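Subgroup meeting minutes
Present: P.N., E.W., G.H.
Scribe: E.W.

1. P.N. recapped why we're keeping a running log of single-chain structure predictions: easier to compare across weeks, and new members can see raw inputs and outputs side by side.
2. G.H. added today's entry (185 aa).
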Amino acid sequence: MRWDRLFDDLEAQAAAAAARDFDAEVADRSRAEQGRLRLADRLRAAEGHTVVLTVRGAGPVSGTLRRVGTGWLLLAAAAEPEILVSLAAVSAVGGLGSATEPARDRSLVEDALDLRKALRGLATDRAGVRVLLTDGTAFDGTLDRVGADYAELAEHPVGEPRRHAAVRAVRTVVIDAIALVTRTQ
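Output recorded in log:
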């Protein structure tokens, strides 16, 4: 009988040690996986939900998260039809909840759909826009062209189409300084 108890006790100790090792490994792997996550992964899981962003130059901006791209996100807000936000200008996010999309490598298509491409889409549409910079400065007009690190904005009054006579100035804006862009027409 003593031998049975001794072996049972040794087996129980070994099982407890194995369980502790397994729990420690799971915790280490969880921390490592958490360390791979980017803010975009957290945001993607919140698509379709209302979030509140703290944006440099704009303060709190809230709306329904419509899409997350490479370096940008699109919100649908009550005050504005849609707001294109530079992810680099976001300093805090509220309303994400606990869900997270798994970290993944972006495809070539996703990498190509960066903030510059989104701005080029607005330039192609010839849409009137308000460009808000991270220092709070705002410019109204139409995006004429988008380069590798800049955008050119033909400044004209809100509500007027871009016509030569309406253009007051052409301003070159550094893309890294853009906080958000909204359509004005």
